[in-house]
Fold:
Amino acid sequence: MVQVLVRMTNSNMEVIYSDMVTKVQQEIMLQRVMSEMASLKKDMIILEKSEFSALLAESEKLKVELLQLKVQLADVMNKVRSDTILDMNLEKSRVKELKADHERKLLEARTDIMEMTAEQDRYLTQTNMKIDTEVAGLKTMLESHKLDTIKYLAGSVFTCLTVVLGFYRVWM
Structure:
């Protein structure tokens, strides 16, 4: 049993020794790991620089696009502004034309009304003159009939008076 224990201890020791490295192997491994870390560090720096360059290029590209968008926006705004000014000027001239047209129509209507008023005044004056002439004629006729009536009345009174005087004389 002691032998079994010795054998077992030896086999365990061999397994432990096989897992262990020597100092030289450890330094070689350390150098290899350090060189790989340095290589990795260089790759990281290169990658970082290339990413920074890519980001910088992207940033420049975005700046150029932004500048182009600003220019386009300014152009669109100028176009909209000029279109709006043009529309306003067109509307203004249309309103002026409408105003001139309305004023012309108003002037024509006013002229027509003045002509109608003048014509009505002429007809009224003619009518008044006819009425005045008729009234004067009627007054003249009335005076003439009045005088004729007074003559006939006077003649009738004198005739009656003559007849009465004739009867008075005859009876007296």
